[in-house]
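Let us practice reading a record.
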Amino acid sequence: MRVHRVVCPGSFDPVTNGHLDIIRRAALLHDEVLVVVGANQAKHGMFTVDERVAMLEEVTKDLANVSVGTFRGLLVDYCRAEGVSAIVKGLRAVSDFEYEMEMAQMNYRLAEIETLFMTANPLYSFLRSSLVREIAAYGGNVASLVPPAVETQLRAKLGLPGAD
């Protein structure tokens, strides 16, 4: 089985430079990358699913083989419906590996969907969306952590100066 289409799932609340790095690298290796935001109704993030999709569309608009969407329910069901045979996940640290390995094994057991792990660029190995939200909420500078369009959205959401 050759992998032509992959899915990069996540909550992307908000999308960070670490997320974008994995997406860009996956786009170099595969014909098509579907970036999907999990629409989990039990989770209430800072940004709505639609806002996250819009931010992802903005920061990936220069990547011709990347499209953005959403999924509900099991990711493997989405993969089957879209004809995707592999999931791409970024690993920041060993602490990510245990959780992601369990998910990968379950996804394979449920639907024989492969998981491809990409190690994070060392510049972003510490980066989590929750950390970005916290820093921004306290007025900290997140310009080096998120794309400019996302920083603008964060500032607007938090009512901070510098938002358009």
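A brief commentary: The two ends are 47 Å apart (CA to CA).
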